[in-house]
Amino acid sequence: MFEWLRHLGAWTIDALWKLGFASRFLLAIVLHSGQVLLRPQLLIREMFFAGVLSLIIIMVSGLFVGMVLGLQGYNTLVRFGSADALGTLVALSLLRELGPVLAALLFASRSGSAMTAEIGLMKATEQLDAMAVMAVNPVARVIAPRFWAGVLSLPVLTALFNVMGIFGGYYVGVVLIGLDEGSYWAQMQNAVDLHDDVINGLIKSVFFGIAVTLIAVFEGYDAEPTAAGVSSATTRTVVTSALVILAMDFVLTAFMF
Asked: Could you tell me which of 124, 95, 101 has the C-alpha nearest to residue 230?
């Protein structure tokens, strides 16, 4: 009769334990981050892995999202005689919401899952234990460079996503549909505010980068040292990151806008 209550209690205890462990894990990363500066080649290599290798999916996705926004926005605005405001609609939609959120989701799916799988495999093959035996701190050597690489890469990827999306909307609205090019850019320039739209959107991406990368490295470090454990940790990274991104987006939007 009370079986569901027992399962709920066990789930709550496990969730609280993981939250506390993740908080201590983040503190350990911050404390050992100074060593990353002593070996910048590690950070550069991880930024290449997390950021540069994600460029294709980010830029292509941004282009198509902008093209869809151009089509849907034009079909809506033309009913009210406001088709010239298409640039404003595309830019504000991307800069405020779609750019940071979709870029973070894509980043979690590609780079976050890869980080989890890589760290989980290192744990399964006892590479992390071997580092500890050789007096090499695995948090400083493996975790911290990946964490900061993700935090630094996501805002840049978000900016590229926004740029490609705006040009996608331009291609559909100006090149295909035939709107006036000057109106597209002028309306956008008049409506977009540097602080309220551009900077706030990038601030969102920084918070998303911290959350997604922390989840990725934590799940990899906490994964069971088996093939099934690494697979489950990779799945949890993508699912948890998606939920956290959407929840954080609501909270940040409520404060910023």
From this structure: 124
